[in-house]
Amino acid sequence: MTPISAPLRPLSEQVWVTGQVSPEQIPGLGDAGFTCLVNHRPDHEEPGQPTGAELARAAAEAGLEVVHAPAHGLPDAAVVAATRKALDELGPDGKAVFFCRSGMRSAAAWAMAERLAGADAGTLRSAALAAGYDLGRVPL
After folding, report:
1. Are the C-beta atoms of 70 and 39 separated by less than 8 Å?
2. DSSP assignment, residue 90?
3. pLDDT of residue 6
4. How far apart are CA 65 and CA 95, in angstroms?
5. pTM of the model
6. Among 9, 34, 77, 135, which has the minimal tally of Cβ within 10 Å of its Cβ?
7. How far apart are CA 85 and CA 8, in angstroms?
């Protein structure tokens, strides 16, 4: 098992965000109690980056659900809808790791999806800022 190089930062009690995850790191996420991996990174964004299919295989082997909702810049309606669906399917005991290259697109997708469910924009911005992500320019 390879540790995650980027820190896992909590956005809520159920959702953590980080930068790129490798297939070798995924078993450790399962061991840490995570049940879902949400990949907001498009395939082939950078040379050498693992593909969504490689990550999905590793997640399935570790018993994690996986959602591939690639965001090319600010998350669009389809990415937000897929993120909302993943959040809805977590259940009360589920824990998810959201990731992209730096975690910024994932934090934005989380906030936009939670806003769809009626969460307060200021509260979402504060939670993201506490995790190191300034969503001041993200339309919530």
Report:
1. yes
2. S
3. 62
4. 10
5. 0.94
6. 77
7. 22
**Tokens 């509260």 — which residue?**
123
Can you read off the two tokens belonging to residue 58?
A: 């590793």
Token pair, residue 2, equals: 């390879």
pLDDT in tens, 11-21: 999 999 999 99
AA letter at 28: G
Dihedral angle over CA of 63, 101, 110, 70, nearest 10: -80
Contact partners, residue 19, CB within 8 Å, separation at least 6: 5, 6, 99, 100, 101, 102, 103
Residue 78 CA, chain-centre distance (Å), reads 15
Which residue's entry shows tokens 């299919």? 53
The rounded distance, in Å, linking the Cα atoms of 1 and 117 is: 36
